[in-house]
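Reading a protein record of the kind used here takes little practice once its layout is understood. Each number in the token line that follows is a code from a learned vocabulary of backbone shapes. One such record is shown here in full, so that the layout can be seen directly:
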Amino acid sequence: MIEEAEKRYFHSVRLIEEKCKGCVNCIKHCPTEAIRVRDGKAQIHEIKCVDCGECIRHCPNQAKTAVADSLDKLSEFRYTVALPAPALYGQFPGGVTPERVLAGLLSLGFDDVYEVAYAAEMVSGRIREVLADPLRPKPLLSSSCPVIVRLIQVRFPEFIDNIVPVVSPMRMAACMARKEKAKETGIPESEIGLFFISPCPGKVSDILDPVGFLGPYIDGAIPIAEVYPKLHNFVYSASSDEVGRMLRKSSGIGVGWGRCGGEIIAVGAKRHISVDGIHHVIQILEEMSHGRLLDMDYIEMLACVGGCVGGVLTVDNPFITRRRVRDLALSNANLDSDEQVAQRQASLLKNVDRKLLGFETRIEPRPTLPLAPDMSVAIQKLEQLEVILETLPGLDCGSCGAPNCRALAEDIVRGLASNTDCIFILRERVHQLADELLALAEKVPPAMGLGKKDITTDAIVENSE
């Protein structure tokens, strides 16, 4: 059953087994308990993994990596278009403008550029419309971060209907770019390659295995960390400004999506929360599960600290880049009020096919692995799990290869582990065994006989009885 379910998912986060030292850092930081350490090596549970990249971030041995494309893949297409994430703009110090970054992408071999930040403005306009619908469940949850969507599928499926049913800026940019460039160039859509410049592995996975859509629409993802060194020298050349101005379409409202809080500004939500960092997001979702936060209209949720600027495929410090993106958004806003922002978004939506703005399929919970196929057996195993849990120390140290004692108890009832995997129980068993061995060593077999003195003593004791 596990193997069949695992085949359904693509994951960009991979283990480099020869580098893994079994240090258990990854299992302690995984938000979905998707990792175990067995036989001295980490193992990623495919069904539970949401490709957040936390294991990449915390592995001291660089044994986790993100599978992505390189610039070499551009040669497979007749015409190529770069889709830069807004977070890319904040990677460069020294007042580098988005125009220079866009022009720099052409120097890498792309034929054209379509800003994800521009598509973000269209998406923002559609979210405004959804927020105005009184029949929508509240609070609505942002759908822009694919890691959070997957997290909800895995751990909080009761909130799937709260996910705002609006396409992400990344996919929207791809849909618009393919149609526009095919019309402009006369080149068939199938021969146009669209490449997202990605800040995180979650986006890479979403490209090849999208949630809420029938299939991929982007041809590849190239990490920001790969294009950054090649762009670095070019973006400081003033000669790129004129080319960049021809490519630039977005305002600061779209650029702001690159940091936590930018989406909230763009959609104009009144009662809202912005949450960054996947463990903080989990805390908020747990609050919701207890019936709190129902007075909120919208919650922006981003898996990486700082937003997309904090993705593991970026280069610079996320706190610094977050400030840069904010400054770029403010300097390029050209809009003085939320009303003006809404008017611009409404004008952008006038010529957009509405079908491109929503999901194509319903988002479903990811299948869980029951303790047993039969319900009665599963209940018995759950009772057994609770009994086993009582015998464990409750320290959640991770030495057993599971993230906590409850996860170990679950593995035990599944037959994937034993209670002696717990180092404390193992130590207690070793002490017991040592005492038994010592007691056995002091015993003498009856056939060997006893000394004369011992026989007399025994006889006296026997007769007295």
Summary: The radius of gyration is 29 Å.
